[in-house]
Amino acid sequence: MNAALVIVDVQEMLVPLVWRGAELADRIAGLAREARRNHVPVIALQQIGPSGTEFDPDSPGTRLDSRLGLAAEDVVIQKTATDAFFGTHLAALLAERELDTIVLTGIATDYCVDATARSALSHGVDVVLVGDGHAPVAEGDPEAGLTAEQIIGRHNRILAAARHPGGELTVRAAAEIVW
Prior knowledge:
Elements: E1 3-8, H1 21-37, E2 42-47, E3 75-79, H2 90-96, E4 101-107, H3 109-122, E5 126-135, H4 148-161, E6 169-172
Parallel strand pairs: 1-2, 1-4, 2-3, 4-5, 5-6
Helix pairs in contact: 3-4
């Protein structure tokens, strides 16, 4: 396994909106420190949108959370879609560095984390989803009757059971990630 840590949208405006956001950001920051210590590439994804929108690239809220402690060797990729592979150089970067696996973590479970996991598999990249390293909005999905914890559990089960041509997905707790 030749892996990279891929951090999805841990941005200043999003961390306070997700379930246990500060705790999540701290857990992800720990994973990033450990990855760097073991010379594992860290790739941070940043959701942006058109000027004047909530994801305006010049808006302070779109900045990546300072707890990540981004280092000079880390790669930041701006994206405009839930799927981090769409319209970005993520696939080319992974191929160029001969990375066949991503350890995936971030915000939000049922949007960008889900879309990026599925796309990685379709791109032939294996995924280790950090089961306690992603979160949906704090209130969950009241219309569907799901709490945030239920959304996390559901996505961990669904993604682990999904079959895609190319890659495989496993779910591991942050404490089980060994570089």
